[in-house]
């Protein structure tokens, strides 16, 4: 049993059940391992959660690096929207972490990572031609829209048209974000 095995299993548990469900005992049982094996690789549960948060950040970082290969910033932002909604576990992870930001460890990681994403969105918007201040504001507006749409679809899915979660999220966000991409303010 390796540190990666424990981290991957914890990430799976986090994705399926939320960060609060990640426990050493449940993971040991799932992996058929001992608690001693866990403590060989991790100081404590907080150390494991750090590894899970780093895996979460690394996954998104990899996506952003792929997106930078798209030359057109408009297409890059549309691809970001599409990719984030293709993985239906995305919203669950994001909403769960946001709900747990009162934990300083989680809160710091979420704030740092969200800042990196907002910088990406802002950079794309300035490439499109939006003034920096407007791009700064619109990046935050688009993020708020994303999170709000994810929360609404998760809590009241029957109110939103669409067959799949992805369809529902796109129906809420795509028209507004398309308008935002086209606007240029001075």
SSE inventory with pairings:
Layout (H helix, E strand, L loop, with lengths): L2 H15 L6 H8 L3 H7 L3 H23 L5 H14 L2 H11 L4 H25 L3 H24 L9 H18 L4
Helix pairs in contact: 1-2, 1-4, 4-7, 5-7, 5-9, 6-8, 7-8, 8-9
What is the structure about, briefly put?
It contains nine helices and no strands. The protein has 186 residues and is mainly alpha-helical. The chain has two domains: 1-55, Homeodomain-like (Arc Repressor Mutant, subunit A); 70-186, no CATH class.
Main beta sheet: none
Report, as a whole number of angstroms, the end-to-end distance: 57 Å
Global geometry: elongated
Strand content: under 5%
Can you give the helix content as a percent range?
Answer: over 70%
Nearest-integer average pLDDT: 89
Structural class assignment: mainly alpha
Number of strands: 0
List the domain count as a whole number.
Answer: 2
**Rg, Å, rounded:** 18 Å
Unreliable residue stretches: none
Oligomeric state: single chain
- The total of helices stands at 9
Give the H and E element order. Answer: HHHHHHHHH
Q: Would you give an account of this structure?
A:
The protein has 2 domains: 1-55, Homeodomain-like (Arc Repressor Mutant, subunit A, Orthogonal Bundle), CATH 1.10.10; 70-186, no CATH class. Helix content is 78%, strand content 0%. The protein has helices spanning 3-17, 24-31, 35-41, 45-67, 73-86, 89-99, 104-128, 132-155, 165-182. The model has no long low-confidence stretch (mean pLDDT 89).
Which descriptors apply to this entry?
single chain, 186 residues, mainly alpha, Arc Repressor Mutant, subunit A, elongated
């Amino acid at each position: 049993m390796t540190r990666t095995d424990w981290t991957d299993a914890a990430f799976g548990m986090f994705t399926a059940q939320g960060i609060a469900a990640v426990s050493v005992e449940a993971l040991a049982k799932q992996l058929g391992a001992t608690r001693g094996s866990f403590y060989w690789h991790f100081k404590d549960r907080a150390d494991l959660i750090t590894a899970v948060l780093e895996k979460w950040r690394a996954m998104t970082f990899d996506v952003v690096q792929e997106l930078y290969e798209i030359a057109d910033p408009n297409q890059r932002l549309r691809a970001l929207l599409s990719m984030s909604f293709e993985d239906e576990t995305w919203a669950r992870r994001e909403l769960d972490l946001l709900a747990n930001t009162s934990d300083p460890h989680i809160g710091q990681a979420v704030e740092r990572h969200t800042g990196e994403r907002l910088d990406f969105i802002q950079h794309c918007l300035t490439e499109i031609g939006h003034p920096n201040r407007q791009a700064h504001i619109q990046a935050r507006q688009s993020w708020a829209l994303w999170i709000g749409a994810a929360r609404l679809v998760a809590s009241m899915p029957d109110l939103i048209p669409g067959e799949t979660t992805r369809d529902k999220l796109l129906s809420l966000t795509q028209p507004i974000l398309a308008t935002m991409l086209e606007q240029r303010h001075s």
